[in-house]
Amino acid sequence: MISLDIFADPVCPWCLIGKARLDRALEARPDHPFALAWRPFQLNPTLPPEGMDRQAFLQARFGAEAERIHVPVLDAAREAGVTLDLAAIRRMPNTFDAHRLLFWAGLEERQTRVMSALMRAYWREGRDIGAPAALADIAAEAGMDRAMVARLLASDADRDTVAEAEAHARERGIRAVPTFILGNQYVLEGAQPVETWLKVIDEIAA
Predict the structure, then answer these.
(1) Which of 8, 30, 139, 158 could form a disulfide with 144 if both were Cys (CB 3.0 to 4.6 A apart)?
(2) Which of 152, 144, 138, 160 is nearest to 109 (CA)?
(3) H-type helices in the chain, by residue range?
(4) Which residue, among 32, 44, 28, has the nearest Cα to 182 in the 3D structure?
(5) Is the whole model's pTM more than 0.70, yes or no?
(6) Adjacent-strand bridge partners of 179
(7) Helix, coil or strand: residue 2
(8) Domains of the chain, with CATH numbers?
(9) What is the spatial distance between Cα 120 and Cα 147, in angstroms, rounded to a whole number?
(10) Is 156 exposed, middle or buried (0-12, 13-18, 19+ CB in 10 A)?
(11) From CA 11, how far away is CA 93, in angstroms rounded?
(12) What is the pLDDT of residue 64?
């Protein structure tokens, strides 16, 4: 197997689209050689722990462009067969605890399932994935023990581990997500087309 480390944040629209494209390629090549691992990277690490109103966040960050920034995202989502409900999203969450959940999911080999559930909860259902109760529910939906996850979220468990992993990613030069690292050696940045992944898989197989 070849490691495929994916640096991503569930609230990043290009991570959502990049995952959808990768998923399609992996479905087309079920004997692919990749062992996926989702690595922490916060798009907005300075958000308060409780997050903030999404419209206020977009206005503060993008100003007059706030309404237009989603046009290319919506076009790419449509092409990738991804359903979004932007109107349902009220909060811009701090995703640090979501990354803690992903770390624990990795210990149970449920990371991809949990990342899918986080993205669905945020982008399709408009849930606040910074809220501990929502994260515990999402964990349960992905087959994890809800009570245990709730207890962990209420503690400081693995905060340092996740923070150090993200700091290490930034030290390695990762500045944007999604970023994919194959075999700890080759870097692909951005939401790669399905065709690119098929070519990579086929070249490895050859």
Answers:
(1) 139
(2) 144
(3) 13-28, 54-62, 70-80, 96-107, 111-123, 132-141, 146-154, 159-171, 194-205
(4) 32
(5) yes
(6) 7, 189
(7) strand
(8) 2-19+27-205 (3.40.30.10)
(9) 22
(10) exposed
(11) 8
(12) 85
Hey, what are 52's tokens? 């903030």
Q: Are β-strands 179-182 and 2-8 bridged in parallel, bridged antiparallel, or unpaired? A: antiparallel
The phi, psi pair for 26, rounded to 5°, reads: -70, -35
Contact 160, 125 (CB under 8 A): no
**Chain centroid to CA 94:** 13
Q: Write down how long the chain is.
A: 206
Query: How high is the mean pLDDT in each 10-residue block of the chain (206 residues)?
Result: 97 97 98 97 96 95 88 93 95 98 98 98 98 98 98 98 97 95 96 98 94
Q: Distances from the Cα of 111 to the Cαs of 31, 36, 135, 198, in angstroms?
A: 19, 9, 14, 22
Secondary structure letter of residue 120 according to DSSP: H
Q: For the purposes of burial, counting CB atoms within 10 Å of the CB of 6, is it exposed (0-12), middle (13-18) or buried (19 or more)?
A: buried
Instruction: Assess whether the previous peptide bond of 132 is cis (omega < 30° from 0).
Output: no
Torsion on CA atoms 25, 27, 33, 39, rounded to nearest 10: 70
Residue 160 DSSP label: H
Residue 158: how many other CB atoms lie within 10 Å: 17
Spatial contact of 73 and 190, defined as CB atoms under 8 Å apart:
no
Q: Is the distance from CB of 192 to CB of 180 less than 8 angstroms?
A: yes
Helix (H) or strand (E) holding 39, with range, is strand 34-40
